[in-house]
Amino acid sequence: MRTALIYSDEWRRFDYGSEHPLRMERLGLTWNLMEAYGLTTLPRAKVLAPAPAELDAVARFHSREYIDVLRAASAGDWVPHAARYDPGPSHNPIFPGLWEAAQLSAGGSLLAAGLVADGEVDRAFHFAGGLHHAMPDRASGFCYVNDPVLAILKLRERGWRVAYVDIDAHHGDGVQFAFYGDPNVLTISTHERGDRLFPGTGFVVEKGEGDGVGFSVNLPLQPFTDDEVYRPAFEAVVPPLLRAFKADVLVLQLGIDSHRTDPLTHLSLTVQGFTSVVKRVLELAPRVVALGGGGYDLPNVARAWTGAWAAMNDVVLAEALPRECHKDMTRLGLRVLELSDPPGELPEDTRRWAEEYACRQVAAIRETLFPLHRI
Ligand SMILES: [Zn+2]
Fold first, then answer.
1. In this predicted model, what pLDDT tens digit does every residue of 273-294 receive, in sequence order?
2. How does residue 86 score in pLDDT terms, banded at 50, 70 and 90?
3. Which residues contact 359 (CB under 8 A, 6 or more apart)?
4. Are 170 and 199 within 8 A, CB to CB?
5. How much distance in Å is there from the Cα of 185 to the middle of ligand 1?
6. Quick one: pLDDT at residue 189?
7. Do 92 and 144 contact (CB within 8 A), yes or no?
């Protein structure tokens, strides 16, 4: 297995603002944990820094007009009607260098896709990517440039069939939008139900359009869904579809805001639950381009993505976190200094409530979408 880890410490140059939940610091924290575990010097893994994405590459999905707005706002220029494109206060702040930050994130995902497309590696991981909400002409959900879409477009250049699996707590709406009519890209998103959480979409009835009907799959979940509810629902939906679709490559969005301590969402997964899902999809894919995503409780982000990268390299990690990371993890609120979380204590009636909802969604997917794939 040949792999590549894409990382740049250029993230230090950028900041969404002191009160914004997306902390760039999470990237350095993740890198440090990977390094402490010896995962940045594996013999068969390359470690590469990305170059910023070219404007033309970004323009394959985003409008020129919107790109011009991002560049001007990033440089501190006044932009007439900027609100129309959605950068501004709240979710998508204007901060110095936001265009360069977006270019770097897009560049990393394009590099990961290129390495896999060229056969240089079988699996590549760019954990600063996965910004799945950005739309062609507007920013959304902390995302300015949709790097998963750009990576998929690059893989499509090879004529490959691409499966996209998004396990972020939020619906992967930008990616679904990009390929809604395309039968060569199967998008599957599992997430907290859209009537409880941003961006408000991602219901089972969103099945694709035209030739793409059946190739857009959504598994919405109830708040408090934990590993015990999530795993069987995932198993009932994702592996059969991936086997039927026979993708040449899998693009994975690995948001870990599904974690039970994440401050922005209400799902209840653990790090080990997340990692077990990553391992499961790795078994089902010949090639993988893995990206990061949401995650606002920083020690979870570092532990989950370190676990995911270890899984991509078939490395088993010690449970005790390396001593050199203890200080940062403790400062950021982690109480048990281990890779896995202590067992959860979800009340039984809450779990049943989440389980009943998940079962109904799974049944609806199997009834309406599986026949389209002859499953
Ligand atoms: Zn998210």
1. 999 999 999 999 999 999 999 9
2. low
3. 233
4. yes
5. 21
6. 98
7. yes
Q: Give the model confidence (pLDDT) of 20-32 as tens digits.
A: 888 889 999 999 9
- Distance between CA 86 and CA 135 in Å, rounded? 10
Would you state the pLDDT for residue 15? 83
Containing H/E element for 178?
A: helix 173-178
User: CA 125 to CA 2: how far, in whole Å?
Assistant: 12
Q: Please state the rounded mean pLDDT for residues 220-241.
A: 98
Residue 229: both structure tokens together: 């509810």
pLDDT at residue 287 in the model: 98
**44 alpha carbon to ligand 1 midpoint, in Å?**
31
User: In this model, does residue 89 exceed pLDDT 60?
Assistant: no
pLDDT of residue 90: 60
Ligand 1 mean position, distance from CA 120 (Å): 30
126 is annotated as an active-site residue: no
Report the C-alpha gap between 202 and 193 in whole angstroms. 7
Cβ-contact 298, 256 below 8 angstroms: no
Does pLDDT of 115 surpass 90?
Answer: yes
**Residue recorded with tokens 């219901």:** 203
Closest CA to 143 of 197, 84, 189, 98: 98
Q: Determine the Cα–Cα distance for residues 90 and 367; give it in Å rounded to an integer.
A: 40
- Cα(294) to centroid(ligand 1), Å: 4
Q: What's the gap between Cα 126 and its chain centre?
A: 10
Q: What are phi and psi of 165, to 5 degrees?
A: -120, 125
Q: Can you tell me the distance from the alpha carbon of 55 to that of 346, in angstroms, rounded to the nearest whole number?
A: 48
Please check whether residue 199 is in contact with residue 146, taking contact to mean a CB–CB distance below 8 angstroms. Answer: no
Residue pLDDT, tens place only, 324-336: 999 999 999 999 9
User: d(Cα 282, Cα 288) in Å, to the nearest integer?
Assistant: 7
Q: Locate tokens 């969402």: which residue?
A: 265
Global pTM reads 0.97
**What are the two backbone dihedrals, phi and then psi, of residue 51, each rounded to the nearest 5 degrees?**
-95, 155
How far CA 108 is from CA of 33, 47, 153, 370, in Å, comes to 20, 12, 14, 34
Among 91, 132, 133, 171, the active-site one is 133
DSSP letter assigned to residue 370: G
